[in-house]
Amino acid sequence: xxxxxxxxxxxxxxxxxxxxxxxxxxxxxxxxxxxxxxxxxxxxxxxxxxxxxxxxxxxxxxxxxxxxxxxxxxxxxxxxxxxxxxxxxxxxxxxxxxxxxxxxxxxxxxxxxxxxxxxxxxxxxxxxxxxxxxxxxxxxxxxxxxxxxxxxxxxxxxxxxxxxxxxxxxxxxxxxxxxxxxxxxxxxxxxxxxxxxxxxxxxxxxxxxxxxxxxxxxxxxxxxxxxxxxxxxxxxxxxxxxxxxxxxxxxxxxxxxxxxxxxxxxxxxxxxxxxxxxxxxxxxxxxxxxxxxxxxxxxxxxxxxxxxxxxxxxxxxxxxxxxxxxxxxxxxxxxxxxxxxxxxxxxxxxxxxxxxxxxxxxxxxxxxxxxxxxxxxxxxxxxxxxxxxxxxxxxxxxxxxxxxxxxxxxxxxxxxxxxxxxxxxxxxxxxxxxxxxxxxxxxxxxxxxxxxxxxxxxxxxxxxxxxxxxxxxxxxxxxxxxxxxxxxxxxxxxxxxxxxxxxxxxxxxxxxxxxxxxxxxxxxxxxxxxxxxxxxxxxxxxxxxxxxxxxxxxxxxxxxxxxxxxxxxxxxxxxxxxxxxxxxxxxxxxxxxxxxxxxxxxxxxxxxxxxxxxxxxxxxxxxxxxxxxxxxxxxxxxxxxxxxxxxxxxxxxxxxxxxxxxxxxxxxxxx
Length: 671
Fold this sequence. Notes:
The chain is an alpha+beta fold. Helices cover 16% and strands 42% of the residues. The protein folds into three domains: 19-277, Immunoglobulin-like (Sandwich); 291-457, C8orf32 fold; 464-670, Jelly Rolls (Sandwich), CATH 2.60.120. It contains ten helices and 36 strands.
């Protein structure tokens, strides 16, 4: 009897502790949880994620891929509300498309001790055409409150048998439990690709499956007045199903630090690639391919390579634009600027022309392919070795294997005796070899007319340069005032144009004071924001609020004033993904400080020159006495825009040294 009671007690306890992830079974315990038990700083957490992909068969379409999704998310605070918006991508072609069904979504809140359910209304589900080849279904969960739990599920049916979405087992928020199940008929052979560092529980198996192909009727009749007989026959086939069950529990969030790039590239995830198809008695059909095959398939498309052969819609206009251009470099620039000025980007990305180049030229707008393929066509017409370059944006990620879905953008490239020049004419502020930052995603694939292709770096060789000349006057009453003149080139200039173009003088001043904390600004002048090929210039006068301190008869000065870094951007003990600076960077500071009569320099920071891995970065710092007072010469540079995680510890030490050095003080004392 005691054993029976003990068994029942253990069963009840273990059953109560086991979480029920069946849709609709949200518990009070989940709603009552105020903070995540392991990561109390988390704004939300994935309680459960499930992906079940399998194949169905019907006479009309044959096999189709079915993917069933379910997700349950805990919202701890209002900052976690961003996790309550969902976008589902559906792919399509000229004769087939994916469809979604069974979409259900509920927000659960605990009100007066009772669970309150708010269902997603159909009117709050929105469909959006993102391009010729993809649509999106979007929704935001209703009645969001701190402490809520949201849950949704849906089914996607796809005629594209190899189009299995990547399943992520890690996010920027904690994941309590994530599962993925894949059941593939033996006719479809898949390769499994994993990325990320978290361990997964992977079980592979096989199972027998019978597929009913439907009912057919055999009819027979005798002679004369014999009755016609019909015999029903059920058709079926037996085959083996390959199964993969993948799971992970208590997955920590990936920690985002400075210069992370797109963290999605480094999250733990699994992606299946359809390698080949072989039906009984039929030849083997290879599906997976090389990057060369992918590039050739894209180039041979009517909406890509064929468009590059046409010039009759722009030839007269371009001849006129190039009539008085003398040098080859100027011709490249003129073609680039001609396309930039004529065409306007409609906001859609892609590597296939949607409008068709002739129609886009007439409308003076188009997607990324309409504009940049047009640029390639014009450069070729002008006599240059120009080719398109396929790109995956940072948000799109780095593809795990050769696939056309690995790219979502195209830019133009020109080769001449001085090297390769990349151009993106969708960016009105763009320059040659200065792509938008979200395009600087390692490498792109250059496609030639003869069918060959190669990887080419997307990273810019041009550094983002910031030069500062600052003059500071320390009065006899120790009042501090200064003037600054700054000059920005490369990506630094592009950033200033993006952030300040169109702002009022008041908003410009307020934004600069927010960037340069600890000073009050006046007489702000920002020049050349509309002149793309000129450096951006900034000048202002300022009064520092905290950089000078009097202690007895001594004066303590922070000699870099508001230009010193105030914290190390690298704080983690370790890092498992690369450091993405996007482009080389160089900052130079020349600061002259006039000291008042009656004071002398008691101590100065020691000079220092430090190299990061020989040439990857440098820091030099010199503080010297000058006839008028003190001069500070400081330069810091990052020469390598991408560094592997193995460089992290030394990079962290490098920035710690910079931080420590730039916080050192100049001490004045009374004579």
